[in-house]
Design brief:
This protein is mainly beta and 296 residues long. It is built from no helices and 28 strands. It has a 4-stranded antiparallel beta sheet with strand order 1-28-27-26, with no helix packed on it. Strands 2-3-4-5 form a 4-stranded antiparallel beta sheet, with no helix packed on it. The protein has a 4-stranded antiparallel beta sheet with strand order 6-7-8-9, with no helix packed on it.
Length: 296
């Protein structure tokens, strides 16, 4: 049985957005509207850390150096916060680049997308950054993940494609999606060695193999607007439906199960496997939701 519990935050207007599990056994999340980074150990009260200026933090991930790294799409910075709350911020190479997605690469650096600049960036743990232009303009690169093939895979929201950048040569390859106007956003590497992504406009879950073969799985409600996707550690993928007020799971053979969230119009965004082996999602209404995985 899937049990969903919601944990309201102190500020309902703070705008929880991205979420990840830190190396300290805590959940770390961005508060996009409040300009803060949050930390919460399951079962305890959350702590928040203020950014100055606010900067609209978006996606957050654990870095190879044991700190948390996050993007600031409005301040055009990459941020770093240690597990004891010390914050450092680094400007992205392209002015007004609008960094959004961020993930650790196989080379020990962090790779990020620049939505406004149509570029893929790379930043070392020392804060040195470079970027590479995409072969198309107006692509709006969004989320990014490390593939099993040594490349970084990313969604190209407005180009309706999935991209791959080779971390050694920085060569970029693009793979157009079969469905027109699919608008892919969230992306993650699956337990089957393929990369999985969501199509927010088409209401589908997508899968792409290292050789570029794409399969799409329509959701029961095509208007649910899936947003983020992650693995659950048990061989399935879980995703959020921003407009459908649901979280869902998909097996690697395409079987989909949906679960309604308790609070109407809660607008789930980021999702991650928590330190307690449950899934956690950030809700726009100012809460975190815990989803018990069946069989756990």
């Amino acid at each position: 049985m899937t049990l969903i519990q919601e944990y309201p935050l102190a500020d309902p207007a703070a705008g929880p957005y991205g979420i990840t599990t830190g190396p300290d056994g805590a959940l770390w999340f961005t508060l996009a509207h409040a300009g803060q980074i949050g930390r919460m150990v399951p079962g305890e009260e959350p702590t928040t850390y203020h950014l100055d200026p606010a900067g609209q933090p978006t996606i957050i991930t654990t870095g190879p150096d044991g700190a948390l790294w996050f993007t600031e799409s409005r301040a055009h910075h990459i941020g770093r916060i240690t597990t004891d709350g010390v914050i450092t911020r680094f400007p992205v190479p392209s002015r007004d680049g609008g960094p959004y997605g961020i993930a650790v690469g196989p080379d020990g650096a962090l790779w990020f997308t620049e939505m406004n600049a149509d570029r893929i960036g790379r930043i070392t743990t020392g804060g040195e950054s470079t970027d590479v232009p995409l072969p198309v303009t107006g692509a709006y690169p969004s989320a990014i993940t490390a593939g099993t093939d040594g490349g970084m895979w990313f969604t190209m929201n407005q180009a309706n494609a999935i991209g791959r950048i080779d971390t050694a040569s920085t060569t970029i390859t693009t793979y157009p999606l079969p469905t027109e106007a699919a608008a892919p956003v969230g992306i993650t590497t699956g337990p089957d060695g393929a990369v999985w992504f969501v199509e927010i406009a088409a209401g589908q879950i997508g899968r792409i193999t290292p050789d570029g073969t794409i399969t799409e799985f329509p959701l029961p409600d095509r208007a649910g607007r899936p947003h983020a996707i992650t693995g659950d550690g048990n061989g399935d993928l879980w995703f959020t439906e921003w407009a459908g007020n649901r979280v869902g799971s998909i097996t690697t053979d395409g079987t989909i199960t949906l679960h309604d969230l308790p609070t109407p119009r809660s607008e789930p965004h980021g999702i991650t496997l928590g330190p307690d082996s449950a899934l956690w999602t950030a809700l726009e209404v100012g809460a975190l939701a815990r989803i018990t995985i069946p069989g756990q």
